[in-house]
Amino acid sequence: KQDGFTFDGGPTIVTVPELFEELWELCGKTMSDDVDLRLMDPFYRIRFDDGRIFDYSNEKSENLRQILEFNPADAEGYERYLKASEARHKVGFALLDKPFSTLSQLLRFAPDLVRLRGDQSVYQLVSKYIKNEQLRQAVSFHPLLIGGNPYTASSLYSLISHLEVTGGVWSAMGGTGRIIESLGHLIRGQGSDIRLNAEVDQITTENRKVTGVRMKSGEHIAANLVISNADSAWTYKYLLSETTKRKWTERKIDKAHYSNGL
């Protein structure tokens, strides 16, 4: 906090508020009663090193107007790119809750990944439709928002462009911290307990079934279901004992190569 303002130290925008709203509805509440979300316009102001500015807007017509100033030939390409983004949104968003823990699960979606050139990067996809380098950067930078690299992240992440055009970019008054505080109130309102600054030492098991968690303090909390929000590799290596591991041994975990945890 500084001079009456509160600055977020992490994510600052919301692109799919419906997912939060659904959570509130499942709890019999209304999100707008707890969180004041406001549509941003422009979404972003992009400043280039030569002093030029591109205001990425909520209105496609405004984006097209600016594109015409940068490079008129890219206006048509931008509209074609948005169609490509929509196609990837239809496939990519449907995969959000699908596991890829087996080869057969991956192969099920392989035709779509091949058809949509999931092997290409976001930047490569954008470059197919837009030729001006500054516009390429303005349209392809979105993977940075989730810790990705536009030059290496799969073109499926271009679905963010479609999300923004159709659903907008939103900001919570009071910052992302306000959403977190409200989630805490929502969870406690359902009768659940939240423990802060309480480090888990181990997920305990018996006969290959989870029995709870043991805290660093030595306390054991019994449970027949434990959800770990840590990376899977960390969970298997540090929170589960060696006797509970079959496939994911420490040796296999140490030899694996990992992508970004988003």
Helix content: 40-55%
What fraction strand?
5-15%
Number of helices: 10
Average pLDDT score: 87
Sheet with most strands: 3 strands, antiparallel
Based on CA atoms alone, the radius of gyration comes out at 22 Å
Strands side by side in the biggest sheet: 5-6-7
Give the domain tally: 2
- Principal-axes shape call: globular
* Residue windows where pLDDT falls under 50 for at least 5 positions: none
Instruction: State the order of secondary-structure elements, H for helix, E for strand.
Output: HEEEHHHHHHEHEEEHH
Task: Offer a concise description of the structure.
This protein has about 260 residues and is an alpha+beta fold. It contains ten helices and seven strands.
